[in-house]
Amino acid sequence: MTDRARTLLAKAFEIEVSEVPETAAIGRFEAWTARRHARLFDVMAEVLGREMTGAEASSIHSVASLQAVLDSAQRTGG
Fold first, then answer.
1. Pick from 74, 26, 73, 24: which is nearest to 52 by CA?
2. Are 63 and 37 in contact (CB under 8 A)?
3. Residue 1 Cα to chain centre, angstroms
4. Interval 35-58: pLDDT, tens
5. Is the confidence at residue 78, as pLDDT, over 70?
6. Which of 12, 40, 59, 78 is most buried per CB count within 10 Å?
7. CB–CB of 22/63 below 8 Å?
């Protein structure tokens, strides 16, 4: 399930969740711009209650990879 990742992308990109496809990724989703990618880091910091690690930040390139970061953070408590 990638619903949470799609919801966070929609918030960061200031678009409707319905506009974020399951396959959204850098270079394949027109709405995923550099400015919006940076905004995603701000939204993730709010959600996680901390800044992302460099490894987390550099791993985010798609809905699936964003969901993996969210899942990992949930398992480790933040």
1. 73
2. no
3. 14
4. 999 999 999 999 999 999 999 999
5. no
6. 12
7. yes
